[in-house]
Amino acid sequence: MSVSASSAGSTGALPQPSSRSSISAAAATGKHQLKIDGYSLTTAVPRGAHIKSSNFQAAGFSWYINYFPNGCGRLLKRGRGHVSLQLVLDGAAPAAAVKAQFTVHPHPAQPHRPTGGGHRAQEPRAQARRRVVVLQVRQEGDPAGPVPGAPQGRQLHAPVRGRRPRQVPALQAVKTAPFVEVPPPDLHRHLGDLLVSGEASDVTLRAGGERFSVHRCVLAARSPVFKAELLGSMREGTSDCDIDIEDMEPRVFKALLQFMYTDALPEVDKKEEAAMTQHLLEAADRFNLQRLKVLCEDMLCGCIDTGSVVNTLVLADQHNCQGLKEKCFEFLKSTGLNAVMATDGFNHLASSCPTVLEELMSKLTLH
What we know:
The chain has helices at residues 39-42, 187-197, 216-222, 224-230, 250-262, 273-286, 290-301, 309-318, 322-335, 344-352, 354-366, and strands spanning 51-52, 56-58, 61-68, 83-89, 130-139, 154-159, 203-207, 210-214, 241-245. It is an alpha+beta fold. Helix content is 31%, strand content 14%. Helix 3 runs antiparallel to helix 4, helix 6 runs antiparallel to helix 7 and helix 8 (309-318) packs parallel to helix 10. Strands 1, 2, 3, 4, 5 and 6 form a six-stranded mixed sheet that branches. It holds the Pfam family BACK_BPM_SPOP. Residues 1-26, 141-163 are annotated as: Disordered.
């Protein structure tokens, strides 16, 4: 580039100084290796669906790759055997447009030359049949629009090995090892250990002749009923207290306490699951544990049969479990009343819950 200037009225020829400058643009580059272990297993992913890789840094930006084992876009019309890769710019849109170009080594173990655009990679004769790989660049959160200025629809032919198995387990993308491994939450485990040890307990509860050493702050935080009982004005200034829990079996109360400390229920024998769940639903309603109540209601929806449907319907009505009640109605509409009318539970329903029986008959009539 040269710059010159002149002024009017100048006399004589003066030497003209010159200067030069240049502008050079360099593109940031990066390299990432994507390894697909167990390719034949990934082919069970539905056509058009993808597995997301872990994020990686390249050229100053964060990227990830969507791997479509059975193709995407226009490749879906070509049938099986097509693999698609999609390079995605992660995160919020940058202030300026990002232009991306790429080259691909489809088989690093072989002496292929890098390819990009519409070029074909050289393939050894001993390899399996060719499968089309489509690479595309786009920005996250904009499935219809690519990164501005990015090349689209690039294709290359690359060898892919493997056969489709008859039964395939569930699949997930394998993440690379992070710099910092954050452990999963374990508060429930610590509180469970505190319940088992009874350390620093300040309340003793008795159910069915069995004693349980517990912590009033935990029970008060979980149950409004226990909060009123343990932190009410009548309990102020007391360090230890004993409370009797009437009309509850020790095993049921133990399971209730475990849920209050850990938010999980203990495992029970399959034969006792329905009866235990019914007792826990009653306890949850008694101590206003709404999540436990809904959890038991959901579990009982899967335990309904001809021998238990009537008793479950009575239980649902007594504890205002509308979802469980509707499930019982649906079961009786599909099976009819003849199978349950001879049971003791039906006689109990007719005598103790006549409104529920009327509601049931009206639903059967409409059905």
